TrEMBL record:
Family of the protein in this entry: Belongs to the HicA mRNA interferase family.
MF terms (GO), sorted A to Z: endonuclease activity; hydrolase activity; mRNA binding
Keyword field contains RNA-binding: yes
Pfam families, sorted: HicA_toxin
Top-rank taxon: Bacteria
Keyword Hydrolase: yes
Protein name: Addiction module toxin, HicA family
Alphabetically ordered keywords of this record: Endonuclease, Hydrolase, Nuclease, RNA-binding, Stress response, Toxin-antitoxin system
Source lineage: Bacteria, Candidatus Kueneniibacteriota
InterPro entries: HicA_mRNA_interferase, HicA_sf
Amino acid sequence: MPKLPVIKPRELIRRLVKFGFVIDHQTGSHVVMYSAANHKRAVIPIHTKELPAGTLLAILREGGISKSDILGK
């Protein structure tokens, strides 16, 4: 199984846009993105550091995106 990339929140938002997600709204330091295609949402904490591996996995699971998709794009 491939390792997850070290990724910052802003880069993750850019990658999720490629999968059809749009920014729905922002509450405090969290951006909520929504995909009309699969009716899923992803909540991304906006901080300056890289996302921890567990947080990244949870965001991908919540949005219905596989790890291989995020590595390939």
